[in-house]
Amino acid sequence: MDSEEMKNRTKQFAINVGVLTQGLPISQINRAYSNQIIRSSSSVGANYRASRRAKSNADFINKLKIVEEELDESLFFLELLAFFNQPQKEEIGILYREGETLLKIIVASIISSRK
Fold first, then answer.
1. Beta strand segments in 1-115, E
2. 62 alpha carbon, distance to own chain's centre
3. CA-CA distance, 75 to 93, in Å (whole number)?
4. Which residues have CB under 8 Å from 17's CB, separation 6+?
5. How far is 75 from 57, CA to CA, in rounded Å?
6. How sure is the predictor about 115, in pLDDT bands with cuts at 50, 70 and 90?
7. What is the distance between the alpha carbons of residues 38 and 110, in angstroms, rounded to a whole number?
8. CA 16 → CA 38, 42, 64, 115, distances in Å?
9. 53-67: buried (b, 16+ CB within 10 Å) or exposed (e) per residue?
10. How many CA atoms are closer than 13 Å to the CA of 48, on its beta-carbon side?
């Protein structure tokens, strides 16, 4: 996968999270978790873009590590949203699997960049 495709996928991940959260029932829990996952999922795309402008290999790896952390955080909040929103569990599961796939790609990129 090239960097442009990854840039588009990370952006789409954030968009899909936003669409999901807009459709959730209004509750204190959904509001809190939605705010957190909107931040973390949008940070995935923003930091991936920043990694493409890294000034060194070390800078590139550091930015990808941030992407890794934000993806992991997004997965955590997707798990919580799935628990509290059983009717949307399938939709959340689709996003979760995409997040896992993105995480695997990022981790592989970090490993290959260290060699």
1. none
2. 16
3. 10
4. 37, 38, 41, 42, 74, 95
5. 27
6. confident
7. 24
8. 10, 10, 21, 34
9. eeeeeeebbebbebb
10. 29
Interhelix angle 57-84/3-22, rounded to 10 degrees, is: 30
- Rg, C-alpha atoms of the chain: 14
pLDDT given at position 57: 95
pTM over 0.85: yes
Q: Other C-beta atoms within 10 Å of 17: how many?
A: 26
For residue 91, give both structure tokens.
């939709």
Tokens (6 digits) for 52: 């493409």
CATH fold, domain 3-114, is de novo design (two linked rop proteins) (1.20.1440)
Average pLDDT over residues 103-113: 96
Structure tokens of 39? Answer: 């931040």
